[in-house]
Each structure stands twice: as structure tokens, then as C-alpha cells.
Amino acid sequence: MTRIPHETSGEPNPLQAVTLDRLRRRTSMKWRTYPADVLPVWVAEMDVPLAEPVVRAVTDALDLGDTGYPAGTAYAEALAAFAEKRWDWDGLALERTAIVPDVMQGVVEMLKLVTGPGDAVVVNSPVYPPFYDFVGHMDRRVAEAPLGADGRIDLGVLEDTFRQTVAGGRPAAYLLCSPHNPTGTVHTAAELSAVAALAERHGVRVVADEIHAPLVIGGADFVPYLSVPGAERGLSLMSASKGWNLAGLKAALAIAGPGAATDLARMPEEVGHGPSHVGIIAHTAALRDGVAWLDALLAGLDANRRLLADLLAEHLPGVRYRPGDATYLAWLDCRALGLGDDPADAFLRRGRVALNSGLPFGTGGAGHARLNLATSPEVITEAVRRMTAALD
Within a 10 A sphere around the Cβ of 310, how many other Cβ atoms? Predict the structure, then answer.
């Protein structure tokens, strides 16, 4: 796949546009879960203003009273155009897409199409905690195929897990996190092609959560799972929510490979009633007109990765941090600090800084914490200061 370089946007860094005082006026989960003396660098919300094209599109819709039910394919068209320019992928066919309320609800609906109650869903731990929660709530069982020591998919472990989950002829699915949360790993075309071959060999259906796809920061290229050979029976979920901070404006797209079109067609019609029409307007505007804003964000996130690495090396050398090539999430190995299995708890109690505990991420999460980089350099600096103070 040909690398498409990001354009220089000329836009200001959105991570430096909102003061801490103004952020504390927000009423979302990030800013209302903990007391006011706690610095929140945890849940995946960004400390940014919305991209101007998004604000304009939503404001225009409200001014027009355009707040009815969703219709049309504008969202899918915008994503297809973005994918072709950004990832050199022209395989997103409008007729093989469906609007769903959000990525995780879409994951649930896709897993229902290809598995039944009691069947296994394979995940690469440590991984986004809702993978465990949602799979368990839909009466499927999670089968872990832990990442390798390098933070990448261990194909040998994955094949062994596939073999075990389909023993006896039962269906199984593989819930692929791409790019991976929390490590920020961007899977290569070769890795994804190998995954597709293993899945076909063992009859495992792949459902790819690609919500962080727009957020590739480093030198790697994002490769859509459905673009690799052998992935024709795969299903994917994509959204503008993470890239443009639109989690509260619900909308996502389910995308089927050519061999999974009949599966997607079986999704209940009422699922498409869940997304917000205003959310779809916002996501469409982001993908179509918000690319310059996204590029400014990515430049700011890249600077924040380097800042965090420098601060940890200076003040918390016992914390191991390997910057990922995607997402705005930093996965911190704190095992050398002597804080036990849940260092985030110690950072909160002693330092008044909130990170995500690594424990809910499954095997490989103990002794780790996840830090949100999508904030100002000043907040990152203060977060590390508080983490350091927690060791005194």
C-alpha cells in the first residue's frame, strides 16, 4: 500500500487551545468522575475544541431544525473518500455499509451475525476493557490470545487460540483491535494478511474495531483489514468519533467485505435507528472537511509523545514507555515502581492524578496504567509531576 503523506495543515495545535479552567467546566465523564482536585488523564476524551467544520455543520443543522431521523449515504461517502486519500484504499463499497449507533454497539451486532450464545470471541490482551464487558453481556465467552513481548500480535499464539476455540465444530470470532488500544500498535499489511489466512484456515470470522484508524501518529501506515488478501469475509467498524472527539455525537459505520455482504444484510433494520442524525452530520463534516484540523492534532500528539518520553526518563525512569504509532493513549509499564498490580490507584490516592488502571485490560495489564496524551503539554507535565510525587 502506497504511503500517502499527511499534508501540512497550517492550523494551530488544537491541544493548546483550551485552558484548564475552561476544561473543568465540561460535564462529560472525563471531567465529572473525580473530585476537582484530581487531574484527569484517563478516559478517551480529548482536551480540544471541535474542528470548525464540525461546529458549523452542527450549528447549521440546529438552526434549520434538522434534527429528525437519519437518511442517506453521506457518512459512508465521506468515509470512502477519506479512506481513498488517506490510506490509498478504494475498497469501501457503499452498498456494503450500514450505519450503527457507535463502534461497540456495532461490534455487538456484527458478533451476533457470526456467532451464537456460548461461542468464543478471541481478543489480543491487554486490550480495550469493553471488549470483555460487551462480549460477556451478549453471552459469548472471551478467549485471550495475548500480545507478544514486543506488543505485536503473536501469530503462533493466535493460531493455537483459534484451533482451541473451534474445536468440536463451534463457530468463533476474532475481535481485532486495529490500531491496538492500549499499546498504539499499528498492524502491518503482512501481519493482517497472516491473520486473514489463519482465520480462513480455522473458520474464524474477523470483526475489526478500527475506530482509531485516523489517529496514526508515527511512521507506520494504517492498513484497513478489509484491504488485505483473504479478508473478504471480514467485517469492520469505523467512526470519526476518536479522531475528532465526537464520542457524544453517536454514529459509526459497519463495513462488510465482499464475502460478508449477506451477513451484514441480516442485521436487524432497527439497529440503524440508533445513530443520531446530528451525530451523522458531525461525523460526515469531520471526514469531509476536518482533515486540516486532524493533521494539526496529529502533529501536537506526536510532540506530546516525545514530551512524555522525556519527562518519564527524567523524573520516573522506572516507568517503561514505548510510544505507539497510533491513538492518543500511552501504555505505561510501572511494575518496577513497586506499586503493585494497580499503580493507577496509587497515583490517584497519593498524587491526585487519574490514569486508567491496567487491570481491566486483561492478561498483561497488571502493573500497568494508561495515560491520555490528548491534552496540553502543561497538563502532561503536571501529570508526571503528580505521578512522581505519589512515590514520595
Answer: 11
Q: At 390, phi and psi to the nearest 5?
A: -65, -15
Question: What's the CA gap between 246 and 354, in Å, rounded?
Answer: 22
Residue 332 C-alpha cell reads as 505505561
Q: What is the largest CA-CA distance in the chain?
A: 59
Other C-beta atoms closer than 10 Å to the C-beta of 68 total: 9
Q: List the Cα angle 21/25/29 in 5-degree steps.
A: 120
Closest CA to 96 of 279, 270, 276, 233: 233
CB 254 within 8 A of CB 98: yes
Q: What cell was used for 104?
A: 461497540
CA torsion through residues 344, 347, 350, 354, sign: negative
Q: For a pLDDT cut of 90, what percent of the chain falls above it?
A: 96
Give the span between the Cα atoms of 383 and 244, in whole angstroms: 23
Arithmetic mean of pLDDT, 170-181? 98
Please say whether the beta carbons of 357 and 381 come within 8 A: no
* Neighbouring C-alpha atoms within 13 Å toward the C-beta of 274: 20
In the block, cell 455487538 appears at 108
Predicted confidence (pLDDT) at residue 8 exceeds the cutoff of 60: no
Beta strands in the chain (DSSP E): 39-40, 97-100, 120-123, 141-144, 172-177, 205-209, 235-238, 252-256, 320-321, 329-333, 353-354, 356-357, 368-372
Per-residue pLDDT tens digits for 39-86 = 999 999 999 999 999 999 999 999 999 999 999 999 999 999 999 999
